Batch of 2 targets.
Target 1
Amino acid sequence: MSQAALYIVPTPIGNLADVSQRALDTLKQVDVIACEDTRHTGKLLSYYQIGTPTWALHDHNEQHKAEQLVTRLLEGKSIALVSDAGTPLISDPGYHLVNRCREAGIQVVALPGPCAAVTALSAAGLPTDRFVFEGFLPAKDKARHDKLESLKDEPRTMVFYESPRRLLDTVTALVEVMGEARRLVVARELTKAFETIHGLPAGDMLAWLKEDSNRCRGEIVLMVAGHKADADALPLPAQKTLALLSADLGLKKAAALTADIYGLKKNALYKHGLEAGL
Ligand code: SAM
């Protein structure tokens, strides 16, 4: 490498072709690759015929290993940090190492690349001008419920990583806390053979997921539309009627009919329909 530095190298989230030329060059040229699981990363390295030695750096040994890696970096070695998939440090180890490198005045070079959250968001059809990444929700029911309560009025699109085992419970909690009409998008198995990206109001999403257990399988990004004061002011039955009618009649006619039925403003319904992706 031209310079001793810590290189943060994103790796594919499923499709092995999703790795940049710069990432491959970096992995070939560094002295050591620090990775979560040496066997897992070994598969990527052997696919691309890269023989660089690997060191394990995972949640349980990160603080201790970070010190050893900082020593090597200070000796002039270059190190790449990868995780099992996607961008290191994004719900993955690496924070302590990067922090220690910055404290020690070691250069940190981040390469851009795959990240499940950004990939999912870019295809979801939810507003992306502002969003919040919430990582994994707490595993315990009460803590998860409390966390969702704290996010109930969040106006930005919310992005969560979710385990297939907990998806149904989380969507059930979302219906309870944020209501049936809140729009959700489930993106699963991105870049892989069974990639699915599906958006529905929370109540319908729960029913859709329950219809077929395969819909909860694999790796999952769950996205939740932000809270909108206007939309939430529309009565839920009106929102449902609008959604039902617009499937057959188109949004414009559905908004006019729903406005007549419920004595609401046509424009408000039309705007809500557009925002809900109807
Ligand atoms: N650092 C990774 C990134 O940049 O996306 C995320 C690591 S985190 C430990 C793993 C979680 O990311 C999975 O449980 C899932 O929620 C999400 N994920 C990773 N790959 C995915 C994929 N191909 N499709 C959907 N979600 C994925």
Target 2
Amino acid sequence: MIQKPKGTGDFFPDITEKLQYIENTVRKVADRFGFGEIRTPTFESTEVFARGVGGTTDVVQKEMYTFIDRDGPSFTLRPEGTAGVARAIIENGKYGDAMPLKYYYIINCFRHEKPQAGRFREFSQFGVEMYGSTSPAADATVISLADAVIRELKIENVRLHINTIGCPSCRPTYHGKLKEYFSSRKEELCPTCLSRLESNPMRILDCKSPICKEISKGAPKAIDNLCPDCADHFKKLKQYLEALNISYTIDTSIVRGLDYYTRTVFEFICDDIGAQSTICGGGRYDGLMEEIGGNHLPACGFALGITRLLPTVVLPEKAKGPALYIAPMGENATKYSIGEIQKLRNMGLYAETDTVGRSLKAQMKYADKIGAAFTLVLGDNELQSGKATLKNMSDGGALEISLCDLAENISKLYKR
Ligand code: HAM
């Protein structure tokens, strides 16, 4: 049997209904915040991620689905959305548009990670990116958008963790302190972190190896090594979150797994979903545009893992079955039913009839199973008399109705 690739999913209507509900909800919230949808390619030049996400990250070093195209260039299936959006802004010259630029996306991402509950190789994200503001008010806005989505989806037991990781003016000093600290425990570091010691010591703080994690606990913290501007940015962000009534915890262990972040980083953590508990992550990334060849444009954003959220989302109750199921007996009734069902569907109602050739008993059982609100049995007698008995499936009540204007009558009854 041919099987789907490891870490991917087949989603049938029981799940896609939930996915659609999440997608509709995030669109609605993004709308309220004035964010418009952006769509970019599923694959980009490998350089977009190698330079944007950063060459020393796990994503770039270990997880990218990269391929050489038939005519030569190297492409990569997007492991995340931010770098592609940055590339699109540069390529389409959006610098002249009214600032801030506010975009959102719902995309599939691909990472060659070890699959486990909540961690997949193909997964879906809702992301937002806000460009053109250095103010912590922008950071607070994207955080409040994520918070609004989480509340709207009624996801419980979620905590917001925030941190600050400095900027290019304070980071060199901080990097120096990290290098000094980790060099003293060089022998214990994993081979990847050993190579990161010189190139990007902050990445060691994000290593998944238990030993590196333990060593990292005693490392100097970015928050204690901020320049005055970064300290002021973080102070104001905290004040704005308080003004928004959004509670947060300062978590100095958050450095994020992608290199582009400057100053603010944050994660929303849900206690109900096991080890992969980060449902949303983001932050400020003021240097990304230059990193991939554009002009300076400060930005911040986040992405929320839709696939990871699935187990926590409960669909609101709604009528799912058809308004009417017509059970025809005989060829004439079948022809008549097909026409009536079409009229109801054209009126915007969900209606069904037999398409399998079931017995009457089996049809009634099926109508019950799919949750039909009303059923109507039609045979030659009913067609001749122009009248039939409509059964209300919820209370078993019966009502004689005229077949003339059947669709209009059902539509009126169903609304009540
Ligand atoms: P990220 O933290 O790599 O950030 O991913 C964001 C969210 O995507 C995670 O919090 C998680 O819910 C979900 N996610 C990540 N990897 C997987 C996986 N293998 N399986 C299932 N879900 C996963 C970013 O992607 C940044 N681009 C976010 C951002 C936007 N920062 C600024 N703007």
